[in-house]
Each structure stands twice: as structure tokens, then as C-alpha cells.
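pinned: reference chain
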Amino acid sequence: MAATIMYGAPVADAALAEVSELVAALKQKDKTVGLGTILVGDDPSSAHYVARKHEMCERYGLRSVDVRIPASARQSDLLAAVDQLNEDPDIDGFLVQNPVPAGFDYAEAVTRVRPAKDADGLHPTNLGYLALGERGHPRPCTPLGIVAMLLHYQVPVAGRSAVVVGRGTTLGRPLSIMLSLKEEGANAAVTVVHTGVKNWADYTREADIVVGAAGYPNMITPDVIARGSCVVGGGITWQGKRGISDVDESCAAVAGWVTPRLGGVGVTTVAMLLRNTARAAAVGCG
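pinned: its C-alpha cells
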């Protein structure tokens, strides 16, 4: 039986429908939802992601502010930009685009963001709430999209074995927590491995769910997954203008569910970013 291809569009559409509802409701209160981005340097991939976010803001009625900082600037300039958006009453959520050039401290900048305005859900306070299983606080966007995709495609998760390959604070680590929470669509037995684990494939071969979150192109291949398992490509590596997933496309011949190289997890991430921001605006409006 052919694998079910897990396209992200239906999940993104559901999140964006909520955004549209919130934007319309807040407009009745003379409130426009505002999203800000801070981009340091001129990395082409980062610039592409930022442009996509602002396009989506325009499409769904959000006000957006695009702050650009040259790579020749200083850390103090980045922190000043964070402070500016923290104090801007028209900005409900914002993010510092990662990665930042050498010489800048991304962690310090993220910690400077007010937790209530943390559109990415990566502030230490919000990650702490996630670890505690507390609802009502921003959560990281890509893990949110992955969990929502598992739920949408009716992948059995509760009580099943899930292996996350990668431990980064943007994806692998928060996703491992979300998959383990006793919430709808989760409650799995989760193992985290990474490229420093020599026998990582021994874990993925026994897993019901495998998520590639290492940012290592095509590392998940048919020989390292179980037949009928669910395989999600969360990590991506850019080779020029071409994005290469952690999950090789040939996994579709073995998996029961698999994300495509294009149109999978990535399209859900921006939708969750807008949803986090719209929800923050709604909370701020009472």
C-alpha cells in the first residue's frame, strides 16, 4: 500500500482560518494585529523566510514591521531593535530571524524579547512553560505544525514510539516535549537521538514515528525506518536555492505516512507564527 503523503496545506489552512477569525474580531475593536521581524545580515535563505512571513501578513490582514540590521552592526544594535519592538504597542508578536551572523548573540536577543510577544515560542520562559505542560503560552512554530499534521492525518501517536533525530532548541528539543505531553495528538514514548549517536539508526528502525530534525540532508532513508511507520522531515538544508529535507523521498516506498520534500512541514510554520501572534493580540485585548 502506498504511503499517505502528509501535505502541510490542510493544517496551515486550519490555523490561518483561526487567524482570519481573530483578525476580524479584533478589527471590530479597532485593533490591528501586528507582527515584527528582525533580520541581521543578508543571508539569502533567511531573507526568503522573512519575505514569506510578510507576504502572509499582508494576505491575512496583519500589520507587519520589517527591521533590518547590517552584518557590520553591533550586538547593541540588535538589542536596541528588540527593545523597540518590545515597546511598540502596535506589535503583538515578533521574532529574531535565526541564524544571525558571527559576532551576534542570538540567545541573548531572544531572552530580551518579552515572553508575551515571543511569536516564535523560543523565549526561555515559554520553553519552561512548555516543559511544564502549561497551555496558553506561545509554543515553537515548527513543532506545533508537526504535531498538528500528525493529528490531521490521524497518525496513531498516544502510547507509540517516537524518535526525534536532532536536539536543537528550535525544533528537536521542543518537539520531543510536545510529543510526550498528555494532550490530544500526543502522549508518545519519545527518544531523542542525534548525529553524535553512532547507532542512531537502531532507534529509528524500531520507531512508529520518526522525525528528521537534524538539518542533515537525506539522512533518513528506507533502510533506517520500519515498514508502515510515519516519517516526518522537519529539518531542511539549503543547497543554493534548493531545500533538501532530512528525509529522503525514497522513504515513501516503505513508510505508512511521509512528508513530501516540498509542501510539507514548512508551510505550516508560518501559519503557526501568525496564529501565535493573533492569539497574543487577542489576549492583549482582553
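why pinned: The mean pLDDT is 95. The longest strand covers residues 34-40.
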